[in-house]
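Continuing the series of single-chain predictions for the mutant panel. This is the parent chain; the variants come on the following pages.
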Amino acid sequence: MRISTKTQHALRMMLDFAVHGNDGYTSLKDVAARMNVSKTYLEQVMIQINKTNFLTAVRGSTGGYRLARALDKCSVGDILRAMEGGVTHMDVPSEGVDGRVNKMAADVWNGLEKVMMDYLDGMTLQDIVDKHRDYLGYDYTI
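Parent structure:
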């Protein structure tokens, strides 16, 4: 299985908005600079992500994007589905020597997709940020 580069960048972009969310609206230019990718490329990613109402946008010199949902309401599975529709795309051939064998093999891939999507649906942006608090420099010790 392979996750597209666009989907990988979509997750990174969403995490950037999660980390910098307290700064208000963030320009795509700033996100692109932090991610070291072109703004034009992120605009293509944004087209797909924006269809899901993950982000709100404001125009103008102080405008930009920010998350429209709480971090614990944005799952990695939702991001993957927005970008790719799911983990696997199994087409079960109806023709062949034995259609039953094709359907049995498809059951294996469908089972794998369910396990993977359950895992990704159970992981939110909040979970990822919490897991990496030390790396992000949050220190709440007294």
